[in-house]
Amino acid sequence: MPSLPTFVGLDYHQDLVQVCVLDSEGRTLANRSVRNEADLIARFALQHGTPQRVAIEACCGAADLAEELVTHRNLPVQLAHPGYVARMKRSPDKTDLADAQLLADLARVNYLPSVWLAPEATRQLRRLVRHRAQLVRRRRDVKLRIRGLLRENRVPSPGGTPWTKKWLTWLQETDDLAPSDRWLVEDHLEELTSLGRRIRAVEAKIRHTVEDDPVVAKLLTMPGVGLVTAVTLRAEIGRFDRFTRGKQLARFCGVTPRNASSGQRQADAGLIKAGNPDLRTVLIELGHRLIRQTSGPWTKLATGMLSRGKPKNVVVAAVANRWVRWLHHELRRETPQADRVLEQAV
């Protein structure tokens, strides 16, 4: 029995993992829940044969379990794209037994829509970068609430740029707010100060984590790329060499036009909706910075498209797309060494 080739599907949950084991003919050898511990899961899978492929859907906590099974138990684990797996179900009903069996069967026929298993160091950097992005969004929301209170009280704008020291001094001293709204503004300003301090702290932590990373160092030498853009690219993309072409990387980043053609109708519909929104945001912002340069290939590309009547947002997205494809060519050989440096830093 231990030499029998098997295929394993893992339906992950916080406390229990449903483990389904199939043979090469698709017959179910076992399908039961096991406590969420790598030792127990590996032991149960190995009782029924030698796993050829082990499939688990990508979700919160699944990558950590998958890496432990790969590193310490030497099991051939692959992460599966949950969106594509859901489309392959033959029944709208959902059970843990059926989900684990589907994953095992997809692994058996080698049709699993697999995704990259990022190493622990990259996952930790992602958490830092995403935490900073969450704090920035909270700061934006606080600013919107303050501006909303000013509009509710019909307070005239003093002119100048909002959120500068001069503007904040005016906000603290203005007498045009109702007493309760004045209290709300002061409370929001305290929250704004606290968020600013926390954002600076997480940026310092990120800077310390990537200070010796060669990929981040090379990104920072490129025109228009700052720390936030560099670390977001490093964290969300991880290894540039896992993409065979620059077009694949551009699609992963969400800066590829979406084709909406059907029959005689040939059309597009803006950018694709897939991809990490924070990653796409920093790339679109980078596109704006690149076309504001006085010279260079990206300015030339943007000028040519604008002269042909292309809308500004289309031009910015096109510049971001071409830049990402160029970046793939520049960095696809840099990542293996950089991963080792990042792992040591984390």
TrEMBL record:
Pfam families: DEDD_Tnp_IS110, Transposase_20
Molecular functions (GO terms): DNA binding; transposase activity
UniProt organism field: Bremerella volcania
Top-level lineage group: Bacteria
A Gene Ontology biological process term: DNA transposition
Protein name as annotated: Transposase IS116/IS110/IS902 family protein
InterPro entries given in the database record: Transp_IS110-like_N, Transpos_IS110, Transposase_20
NCBIfam families in UniProt: transpos_IS110 (NF033542)
Domain Transposase IS116/IS110/IS902 C-terminal: 218-297
